Amino acid sequence: MEDFRLALIDSGLSDMGCKGDKFMWFNNREGSHFTKERLDRACANVKWLEMFCRANVTTEVASSSDHRSILVSIALGGQEFVRGERPFRYEACWAQRKDCHQVVEEAWKRPWLVNNKLEMATKGLKRFKEKLRS
Questions:
Q1: Closest CA relative to residue 55, chosen from 92, 7, 14, 87
Q2: How many CB atoms lie within 10 A of CB 81?
Q3: What is the pLDDT along the chain (134 residues), one digit of tens a residue?
Q4: Rounded distance between C-alpha atoms, residue 2 and residue 43, angstroms
Q5: Which parts of the chain are beta strand (E)?
Q6: The pLDDT value given to residue 66
Q7: Which residues lie closer than 8 Å to 91 by C-beta, 6 or more apart?
Q8: Which helix (H) or strand (E) covers residue 48, if one does?
Q9: Contact partners, residue 35, CB within 8 Å, separation at least 6
């Protein structure tokens, strides 16, 4: 940990802190064996903190994991970025479903009208996301 702290200092980075429950991981044990830790941190340099002076870090709720993610919210020009639609996140448990492989194939088999491989990947991922959502 001391090497990590020194690396942050050498890089000009500092921990942004965290609002709310700062613990991201717990060991699923009870009593005196119960442990929780703050493993993840958002770090930034002075220039970034000046650009996003209203940025804050919060922990997300974990419904099926022993690890909670962190969310960095930023604001530009006095206007905060607010989430509209919930962002898509792939759930690893979907791979256990029998039809998941078929959904992946259907999303990627369609004909491509694209200019480059990056556009092909972007469109393929968008199709895959739409198929999984439906």
A1: 14
A2: 9
A3: 889 888 988 999 988 888 876 666 667 777 887 777 777 788 999 888 888 888 888 877 666 666 677 888 886 555 555 555 566 777 777 778 888 888 888 877 777 777 888 888 888 888 888 887 77
A4: 16
A5: 13-15, 25-26, 36-37, 43-45, 56-59, 70-73, 75-76, 79-80
A6: 60
A7: none
A8: helix 46-51
A9: 26, 27, 29
Residue 21 token pair: 């429950």
**In this structure, how many other beta carbons lie within 10 angstroms of the beta carbon of residue 24?**
20
Q: pTM for the complete prediction?
A: 0.46
For tokens 């960095």, the residue is 72
CA dihedral 87, 36, 96, 120 (to 10 degrees): 40
Burial 32-70 (b: 16+ CB within 10 A, else e): eeeeeeeeebbebeeeeeeebeebbbbbeeeeeeeebeb
First-to-last C-alpha distance (Å) of the chain:
45
Distance CA 24, CA 59 (A): 7
90: tokens are 């792939």
